Amino acid sequence: AVAVGLLVVARSARGRRAPVTAEPAPDLPVATEHRPFAAVVANPTKVDDADVRLDWVRQASEDLGWAPPLWLETTREDIGAGQARAAVEAGAAVVLAYGGDGTVRAVASALSGTKTPLGLLPLGTGNLLARNLGIGVTDLAEALRTGLSWSERKVDVGVVEFDLSGEDHTPRRETFLV
Q: Cα(162)–Cα(81) distance, rounded to whole angstroms?
């Protein structure tokens, strides 16, 4: 395994719905000098009512002085890496993984090596990274405040390659954080 640095937003002291594509849509939020925006990579199987959740994240972001967030949903084919790359290309100040451990791993794999931090909005059954970092898994409002707090903590990210095919194929790469 190779360790790589990744910025993860950790506990501090105290939008728009866009299509998921490799190229940002023209109506993406625009960060200004005073109002950055977050991108939310949401797993729709974990988010009960995406419109209500988007409204909540939008209002909470604005209450904290942020511009409305970019909302990107995962798909069966892309569980978060492509959406995270699109968020970085769009200029998001932070990418919030809104889902379980699989969504977090996919988003982290795309952010690893970039300067864009990862925030956690834990909705899975395990939420291992969130628990290890002391981010409350039952208080999404506090997790969002933490994710938008500008408080950063570096953690190690592991990457493993393996070939289960028994053939001479390109090895599969997986990122892990815990």
A: 19
